[in-house]
TrEMBL record:
Belongs to the class-II pyridoxal-phosphate-dependent aminotransferase family. MalY/PatB cystathionine beta-lyase subfamily. Residues 17-26 have a biased composition (Basic and acidic residues). Residues 120-402 form the Aminotransferase class I/classII large domain. Keywords: Aminotransferase, Lyase, Pyridoxal phosphate, Transferase. CDD domains: AAT_like (cd00609). Its EC number is 4.4.1.13. The lineage of its organism: Bacteria, Bacillati, Actinomycetota, Actinomycetes, Kitasatosporales. One of its GO terms (molecular function) is transaminase activity. Its cofactor is pyridoxal 5'-phosphate. Residues 1-26 are annotated as: Disordered. This is cysteine-S-conjugate beta-lyase.
């Protein structure tokens, strides 16, 4: 049963924060906060006692039944060495990936261009290691997810940051600012694109993507396009794969994705890179094996099941996330500004009007017992911000919002 068709009798009563009643999903809204607190994954393991966790990008929901069944079949079958080898020709995910991209986004991906990595960060680092030299710069938008910038600095590919701007109707990504950065740059070889964007939730429009594509051609850039949140785009917004803009762009684009966000599989450790440049595919294949690590058979089984048979489950999750993002927008404490994300389950909260300092995360952790993601971790543009993960049950989300209200009211911030 989808979240949007749950009987009206399952509505919750209104609560002190003044939220509208929420339709209850029989599985996703049945989460036990005590059971969540006992989880040993990073999201909950790092939460102090009696603290609700809403920071890292994991959903609280159980995995899709089809994924669970696929893992059990694999466990009961053969866990020996696989016949496929890290995404080279004959690997089990190429055809599944191509069929999914065509079905959901109208993009004719080439199955033999797919290569497997353990996660998106590793794919990015490996591609940069092979396609660039130390000292070559990478242009990307900020605020940026912390591991991306950390990895660029660690491998000596200096990040050239272009801030996303706030407009009257939300966040805007201006290709002209990217152009100005590239014109001033020395040895910039790569455009790193995160679309949909994390942490703002912004989905790039076709004209914006075409502007960036023109820059990539003009400056002879490799484009690494992280599209891991694409499956969670909220209507009426539409995700457009960067590589779908035309043959010239596809030939210089590496599309990276995984099931970590849409299917809650971050711990599975399996990501895919659809590599357009043939010389880059050859370079990856020449170094395949232990140098870049190998994904396991359980990881491939899980992602194959998600992409082939997970759409019904995903539709239910998207309905619940849309409900939660609207609930969040209506229930945030006065003084917190935010633009409802166009994709995903992460809300970028501007707490500067409340006077909570550069890192509001500390206030909410200490006084509300709510663990958010520290805004300054995303770069200087994150000062005064915090990121909230709303991929949880209505009850847990309501408690998070109530705690934030109470803490701010008690300490005179609202």
């Amino acid at each position: 049963m989808s979240a949007d068709t749950t009987p009206a009798a399952d509505f919750e009563p209104s609560d002190p924060a003044g939220h509208e009643p929420a339709r209850r999903h029989p599985v996703f809204d049945a989460l036990d906060p005590d059971a969540l607190a006992r989880r040993d994954g990073e999201k909950w393991a790092y939460a102090p006692e009696d603290t609700l966790s809403a920071w890292i990008g994991d959903m609280d929901f159980p995995i899709a039944p089809g994924i669970r069944a696929a893992l059990i079949r694999r466990i009961d079958g053969d866990l020996g060495y696989p016949v496929w080898f890290d995404g080279t020709e004959g690997a089990p995910l190429g055809e599944v990936f191509a069929a999914r991209m065509k079905r959901r986004f109208g993009f004719a991906a080439e199955p033999t261009h797919l290569r497997l990595f353990t996660d998106v960060n590793q794919a990015m680092s490996a591609i940069l290691h092979l396609a660039t030299r130390p000292g070559d710069a990478v242009v990307l938008h900020t605020p940026a997810c912390p591991p991306f910038v950390d990895d660029l600095r660690r491998i000596d590919r200096p990040p050239l940051t272009v801030p996303i701007e706030e407009g009257a109707h939300g966040w805007t990504l201006d290709p002209d600012r990217v152009a100005a950065t590239l014109d001033r740059a020395d040895r910039c070889r790569v455009l790193f694109l995160v679309n949909p964007h994390n942490p703002t939730g912004r989905v790039l429009r076709r004209d914006e993507l075409e502007g960036l594509a023109e820059l990539a051609l003009r400056h002879d850039l490799l484009v690494i396009s992280d599209e891991v949140h694409a499956d969670l785009t909220h209507p009426p917004h539409v995700h457009i794969p960067f590589a779908s803009l035309g043959p010239e762009i596809a030939a210089r684009t590496v599309t990276v994705t995984s099931g970590s966000k849409a299917f809650n599989l971050a711990g599975i450790r399996c990501a895919a890179a659809h590599i357009g440049p043939p010389e880059l595919r050859d370079a990856v294949d020449a170094r395949r094996g232990l140098l870049f690590g190998q994904v396991g058979v359980l990881a491939v089984a899980a992602l194959a099941a998600a992409w082939a048979d997970g759409d019904a489950w995903l539709d239910e999750v998207r309905g619940l996330l849309d409900r939660n993002r609207r609930r969040l927008a209506a229930g945030l404490p006065e003084g917190i500004r935010h633009h409802s994300p166009e994709a995903g389950f992460l809300a970028w909260l501007d707490c500067r009007p409340l006077g909570l300092g550069d890192d509001p995360y500390v206030f909410f952790r200490d006084h509300a017992k709510v663990l958010l993601f520290s805004g300054p971790s995303f770069g200087p543009e994150g000062n005064g911000f915090a990121r909230l993960n709303f991929a949880t049950s209505a009850g847990v989300l309501d408690t998070i919002l109530n705690r934030m209200h109470t803490a701010l009211r008690t300490r005179g911030h609202v």
